[in-house]
Amino acid sequence: MDERKNSVSHNRFGFAPINRVARWMFGGDSLESLTALGSLFYAGFIFVPAVFPIPTHIWLPQTLLSFALFLPVYLWTWRSRGRQRMVGGLILAALGFALQLSNPFANTYIIFAASVFATLPSWRFGFSLILGMLLSYSVWVLFLAQYLNYIGLLTAWIISLGVGILNALAAANQRKENSLRLSQEEVRQLARMAERERIGRDLHDLLGHTLSVIVLKAELASRLYERKPELAINEIRDVERIARESLGQVRRAVVGIRVAGLRAECAQARVALETANVRLHYPDAWPNMAVGLETVFALAVREATTNILRHAQASAAWIDLEQHGDWLELKVRDNGRCGPAKPGFGLNGMRERAEALGGRLSLDADASGWRLRMLLPYTPEASEREATARNIEPRLACRPAS
Q1: Nearest 5°: phi and psi at 220?
Q2: Is 221 part of a structural domain of the chain?
Q3: Are residues 167 and 265 in the same domain?
Q4: What's the whole-model pTM score?
């Protein structure tokens, strides 16, 4: 989920090609690259003297030369980090100071430098550079006796501080999101490690005892084979029965490593959807259910979350699990704007899992949103169907995508 938020939000508004160009040019995350690309159009203000009666030989050659230097420095600055970015901002500010000798709109480079300084890791240091640059620029304008350029000077102060504040806030939010994403990945990694340890302990306890019994039974059958074949056959049948029971226990033990519980799956879905600006609502309490039912419901939530991220264009989603007599009903819906639902491999897999447990799946998508309903039997007899549903999962995973 590292870039899912930016990619989904920009694709939603049709910015995917522009987003790819921006990331290719500036090499940062999607939001920062798009911001840098959009800001580049502001550089056109450096050519505003063309609309005034100013002789071109006074300002145009110097401006073209400065712009030829500005473009590579600007690209390099946004692709850099830390001290290198600060150096890039100082070079942009130096271009503004130098061009002020011939172009009254040289404050454009000053504003670009302020936007760079504001994204430095330390916002205090960044704003110290901005204030120092603006004060020096004011002294430079007065030293050049450009007293009538007070509008450009005031513009440089207002826009530089405004852009600096906005960029500083955006950079701080981006750092918080990166830190949160790292923390979430650490939590998931710890959860995976704990789950593997649990599976290892369960398998050790289960297989250690079962295999010991199978070895003893096999040795006994070998000794009885010549003297009492009928007893040897009984022992071999016991070995077969114990092996089958052990196989079922192993399948039940490892089912947890393939999918998280329903509550954990909903929590992961909330994190994924919130990165795409989709608010997820789900209840705090769930009915108690067998592992097989919870597995199928959790897989359905995972697939539904993927569909909402890719297709729904929603701002909110809801997950509900209700008990109706001997049935449990999972409902997932959103307020997106999407066309009719087209079943694919993921939806077909959900339907097959539901039908293997004696349930059913319905899907509907129209202008009012996307809705999924999964109904599964909530009875003790469902345990046999539950084992069948787990057995078909390897076949589902190997089917070609539709």
Answers
A1: -65, -45
A2: no
A3: no
A4: 0.46
